[in-house]
Structure formats: C-alpha cells, structure tokens
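We emphasize that the prediction below concerns an isolated chain of 118 residues; any contacts that depend on oligomerization or on bound cofactors are therefore not represented. The input was used exactly as deposited, without trimming of termini.
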Amino acid sequence: MDMLAVAFGNAHGLYKGEPQLDLDLVREIRRRVDVPLVMHGGTGLTDDQYREVIAAGISKINIATVIVNTATERMIKAANEEKASMFSISEAVKQAFREWSLHFYEVFGTMGKAEMEK
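Result of the prediction step, given as a token string:
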C-alpha cells in the first residue's frame, strides 16, 4: 500500500519547544491525494494534538522515540535491581511497550478495532 509522509511542523525525535503544526496544510493535502497520510515525529505531542492530526487526515503516526526511551529507562532500572535477571529485564521492556501501546490505542481511537484472521 502506498502512503505519503508529510511535513507540517512535525519533526523526528524529541521536540525542542512547542511544535507548530499546520493542520490546514494536512487538510488540504488530504483533500488532494487518495493515499493514507503519515506523520513522522509524533513523540512529544499532547493527546489532544494527536486527536487533532488524526481529525485533519493523518492515518499513521510514528511514535518510536517515547516508547524506546521509556523501555530503555525501565531496562536500566530492572538491571540495577538486586535480583536482576534476563527475565526481569525483558519483562520491564515488554511492560513499557505494552503501556504505551495501550495508551496510544486509546488516544488514537483504535482500541478494540483490529480484526483477527480466522
């Protein structure tokens, strides 16, 4: 499937200051093209900003930085525990991914919408 990644004030990694997102530009692009629009650089937006970019026409939001940073912090903390093990470390990483995923499913309005193949 073809997708179009658009730049409208978004940036990869952590934002330095408040992002100035041009949602009118997203709406105009959405009106002119017939492919899903992708936002690179979603880490650091508020939940309301995520909802606004989705409403403007963004179909896919890349948010790796916040998830990876949290998983790394949890991994380091678990590794420094007195009874650290590969199991406790990997569980801490999995839990970070799980928590952020559930959060974003809720914010993006996708919770419970996936269909499983039979």
